[in-house]
Design brief:
This protein is an all-alpha fold. The chain has three helices and no strands.
Length: about 150
Amino acid sequence: MIFDLPPRTQGDSPRKMPPRSMSTPYNITNHTKPTQRETNILNFAETNDSVLDSFSPEDQALLRELEATETSELNSNLANILEKQIELNRRVEQSMNKFTETIQQAQDLIPYLTDSTNKYQEAQEIAANISAITQFRNLDAADLTPKNTSLFE
């Protein structure tokens, strides 16, 4: 099987690979450009598998070798992807467990934070009362006498 991109449609973003008409298939076995004969065999075999018997034994062997190599590489790549996915799933599960634990710890702190907030507000009220009492005590007797004494005479 030769890997190639489908033709671009209007509105597609530009690709890093050239459009189908400009791209060149490569031989998976040795990563070189396939011969015209290999390309013809693969293209013909992809469109009609039932004609395999019409190929010469040499061409059939070449086709089977290419297919086996491609299948082997694809299976290897798939196994690597699955291993990475399993590892990623394990990491996600660990992260979720830590996240859940952190949320539980935060929820456990809410009563303490509420209590601390209430005590802080009470402390602020007490400090304001102490400040008012201190200011009152620091007033001179002159400050407490009426300014206009003519009203009381």
